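quick q for whoever's on today - can somebody do inverse folding on this one?? i tried earlier but teh output was garbage lol. tokens:
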């Protein structure tokens, strides 16, 4: 089945501009009809979901280009693909852990406020216990961007 750029934008919840940008950056190759309109295939949509996943984990376009270029050759370089994914898997795990800690702090603070509203006295929550972990995660992310 063929999809227009507008249909794909709605399916993926991205802008038409984003889809054109991905094409301009050679992240995706899209067929055109006789009038020059883009015609996206189901395979294109699957690949765009993958691109979106990578962008959601903040993979830089340069890394995404490297990853996608591995598929442009007749033989996919499985080893390099795996190395790239392992790198980002670790980054996502660290971010996930930091977000879980932040969520835990928010939940504890909400419970604290609920207890105060009910007139219950509570020990004050020390945010710094959670903040230090989050700052460490952000510092490491910043270091990685300069490599």
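ok took a stab at it. sequence:
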């Amino acid at each position: 089945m063929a999809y227009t750029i507008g249909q794909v934008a709605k399916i993926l919840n991205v802008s038409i501009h984003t889809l054109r940008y991905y094409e301009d950056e050679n992240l995706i190759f899209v067929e055109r009809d006789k009038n020059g309109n883009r015609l996206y295939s189901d395979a294109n949509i699957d690949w765009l979901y993958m691109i979106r996943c990578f962008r959601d984990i903040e993979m830089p376009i340069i890394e995404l280009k490297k990853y996608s270029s591995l598929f442009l050759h007749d033989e996919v370089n499985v080893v390099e693909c795996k190395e790239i994914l392992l790198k980002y898997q670790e980054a996502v795990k660290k971010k996930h852990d930091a977000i879980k800690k932040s969520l835990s702090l928010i939940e504890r603070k909400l419970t604290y406020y609920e207890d105060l509203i009910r007139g219950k006295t509570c020990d004050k929550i020390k945010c710094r216990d959670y903040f230090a972990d989050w700052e460490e995660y952000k510092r490491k992310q910043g270091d990685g961007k300069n490599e």
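fwiw The first helix runs from residue 5 to 12. also Residues 31 and 39 are 5 Å apart (CA to CA). so keep that in mind when u check it
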